Amino acid sequence: MHFTWAGRPCDNGQFGKEPMKSMLATSSLITKLSLFALCTGCSSYAVPGRGADMSLLGMEQTDRSVQAVLDRRPLASLPTSIAIARVERPGYRSETAESFGRGHYSVVTTRDIEAPEQIARLEHLPMVRGLAPIGRVLLPYDLNSDRELRQAAAELHADMLLIYTLDTTFAVDDKALPLTVITLGLSPNQQARVVCTASAVLMDTRNGYVYGIAEATARQNQLADAWTSDNAVDETRCRTESEAFVKLVDELQKTWTGVVRTMQTPPAENHASAE
Q: How many domains, in total, are found in the chain?
């Protein structure tokens, strides 16, 4: 049997020496060119960074601040009363509400997005004696930690404190800018996008022990013409925040179910389940 390579016969089913040299040379050239291209293409790329030295983590003993948190124990008993407060960034103001206080946060005492039926759902949770909103008359003007809110909750004789906040972002995109120019802004081509995440923490009034947390997110889009885009955005904001609060109440109900179950379980059983 004969094979032909580069015009030369090869006997016994094997390539001849010269064609083999040619193949090796070609392969070597391709390899060098590939390495050159790879190095040239990567010359402008910088590696983001090396991994963290994991040996530095977990080697130190627990510091006092962390140990103080771990040493906290729940002091409330069931049934219980809960004080509630909505907190936002300092200087918070919307079309429907204005916050009180300065420092690290402020308190919104106006219920603009909280529907009465949602508040009623929280008030009628099992083992809850009542829900007491924290008003500005119980708060100092300087607000720097949860201590001021827990002090106000103590004034209301509430064993627990529920703190929640709404983190809302929005933007307006013009979907057809040339059409806006032609119609002098009367065409509904602007889309308001609003995203709201509602977060809550339930803590002990006496020592700040955290019983549980909850979080929920809502999103809405709405088309609006250029003349009423501000109103459209704010209306969408209110709807989105209300929706996020409804979802937050759903999550709080789940959280509260777990809190009640844990508090009603004898300590020995809690320890055994943890193991």
A: 2
Q: How confident is the model at residue 225 (pLDDT cuts 50, 70, 90)?
A: low
What residue has token string 């918070």?
A: 92
Mapped to the 3 state alphabet, what secondary structure does 110-143 carry?
CCCCCCHHHHHHHHCCCCEEEEEECCHHHCCCEE
Q: What is the identity of the amino acid at 61?
A: Q
**Cα–Cα distance measured from residue 139 to residue 105, given in angstroms and rounded to the nearest whole number:** 12
Q: Do residues 190 and 175 make contact, with C-beta atoms less than 8 angstroms apart?
A: yes
pLDDT of residue 233: 76
Q: 265 lies in a domain?
A: yes
Render the burial of 31-52: b for 16+ CB within 10 Å, e for the rest.
eeeeeeeeeeeeeeeeeeeeee
Whether 171 is in a domain gets the answer yes
Residues 101 and 186 in one domain: yes
Per-residue DSSP letter, 93: B
Radius of gyration of the chain (CA): 33
Question: 3-state DSSP call for residue 273?
Answer: helix
pLDDT tens figures, 75-105: 899 999 999 999 999 999 998 999 999 999 9
What residues have CB less than 8 Å from 39, skipping those under 6 apart?
Answer: none
Whether 86 and 25 share a structural domain: no
Q: Name the residue range of residue 143's domain.
A: 81-274
- Residues 263, 162, single domain; the answer is yes
- How do 128-133 and 102-103 pair as beta strands? unpaired
